[in-house]
Amino acid sequence: MIEFGKRRLIMVGGLTALILGLGACSTAVEPTPVPAPIPTAQAPMQPAPAYQPASVAKALPAATALPFTAFEAPRAKTGDAQYGGHATFAHRRNVSGGFDPTRSGSISLYWPAGSIMGDSGLVIADQSDSFAVVPGIAESWEASADFTKWTFTIRDNAVWHDGTKLTAEDVKWWVEFAVFGVEGRPKWSAGIAALGMGATLSTVEVVSGNKVQMTFKEPQPHYLRTLIADRSTFMMAHPRHLVQPEFDSGNVMVAPPAFDYVALGPFKMKRYVKGSVIQVSRFDQWWGVDSQGRQLPYLDSIDYPIIPDQSAIIAGFRTGRLDSTARGLGYAVTPEQEATIKRDLGDKAYIIKMPGNIAQINMNTLFAPWDDIRVRKALSLWFDRQQGIQAVFGGNAVMSSIMTPQGPWSDPSFVTWPGYNPDTKAADRAEAKKLLTEAGFPDGFALDLVCASNASVRCEYFEGQLSSLGLKVNVNLVTSDARTERVEGDNWDVTSGGAEALFPLGIATQYDSKLRGETRHLDTNVDAYFPKIAATADFGELQKLVWEMESYIVKEQYLAIPLFVEVFPQAYRSHVHYDTPSGSLYYGTSQQQTWLDQ
What we know:
Blueprint: E1 9-10, H1 16-19, E2 45-46, H2 54-58, E3 86-88, H3 107-117, E4 123-125, E5 132-135, E6 138-144, E7 149-154, H4 168-180, H5 189-195, E8 201-207, E9 211-216, H6 223-227, H7 240-248, E10 267-273, E11 277-282, E12 301-305, H8 310-318, H9 335-345, E13 349-363, H10 373-382, H11 385-393, E14 397-399, H12 425-438, E15 446-452, H13 456-468, E16 472-478, H14 480-488, E17 494-496, H15 508-511, H16 524-535, H17 539-556, E18 560-573, E19 576-577, E20 595-596
Parallel strand pairs: 3-12, 15-16, 15-17
Antiparallel strand pairs: 1-5, 2-6, 4-5, 6-7, 7-9, 8-9, 10-11, 11-12, 13-17, 13-18, 14-18, 19-20
């Protein structure tokens, strides 16, 4: 666990005392009751209740919707951390989205960019526990009694990579840029959903010199939780002093390469050669320290060689040229490769397993035939999820609904729902055929399936399932960036994609119609759930509400067809000491506490 001289907030399960932030004092206190809302815009500021130890969080009710035992236990670090050394971590391809986290949600960006841009949000997820909030560039915070105001104290030792001191004005500018946008530049849906709490943020102000105060139109007791629900808000990758002049000159699409990747992460960019390598080096002025108060990061430098061939990555790892394999769809260590690594390398290597993305079918319900619930339901009933787990991931996956199954937010009964339950598959498929006939498609219809090229195996499975239902599938296999651009518009039928969601409000970018996510619909009943979730502080009521939303989207309206979530295996050499993220493969990419036993 990273130590910041401040306290840590456990977010697993979400009991009220755990949900609601933490104060600025340095010692734990007994949890206080949730304050009743005060009907005034000038509610007094007060520290939120203190965190509780992880042992309390582990005992929370309903925290095992589907046991985390589906994922291999993290390898514990041993010995004292050592400074220095150079690591080589494989990367699958060139960085997507112009190396800009406001324009890409791909692991092709987050795996290497995490080192130079990561862990620079107001708050961040703990390195070894993705469900726990720890300070980021804000060293402390407090909420008003009615949770319409959140005030963050910006640390005074945060420095941009070019040596410029980070100020509260910088943070205010970045939040406004992320939430309100810049004319001529596409809106950043993740920024609006997480930082802006679904466009309920009304003002951002600098107060008392080094504090930033956000005022919301509605109470936001889960603001801290939401800030770590989307990994993109960990990355403050746009320094005001370098980007605003570009905006002023009309270059509203300016991206990090134009200002030498200056950011706030524990490493700084050394060199990026497309198709070859990304190289980063230790940033000596980073603000983080370890549990003993020592400066982070530990490593001197990291190379991310770009190796599109997964088998070549495995070969490089086995021969010792790589310290880890890559992350991302299509680059998981297969069961056969895992067995070979364990046989040939023994205790010289280890495998970590993390939740990956939820695999699901998204339909554009703005147009026929996807506006017909009978068609959507037919597809959901038809898909053989158990077969897909084997065909796509070789067994390295578990069934999933719209929430990742290792937390308390997914209704455990989803495994018995129509389409999910293997015992009713024959009846479900008969019903699917009947529904298509009733909808006017006894002989099926033609559709376009838009897929990223790195998801070809997944899309082959999708195509096979849809074709066996009698549909005529035209697969559009495009680059990841091209798929994102296509789906941002309306000219598409079906696409493959899903949002890993550790916390309920983290799925707003996917399902809130106002944000035009990949689950494209106009159902205001779905949209209405998010402000209700945001305003509900009681854990039991919150869980009930989330389960109700999940059922509405998946089982009642069939607006999306979640299938399964990958259990992503990644191999490391044993001299690499790395904290396995408990949330998903998108977390733990800053490498701030990774070290080498030399």
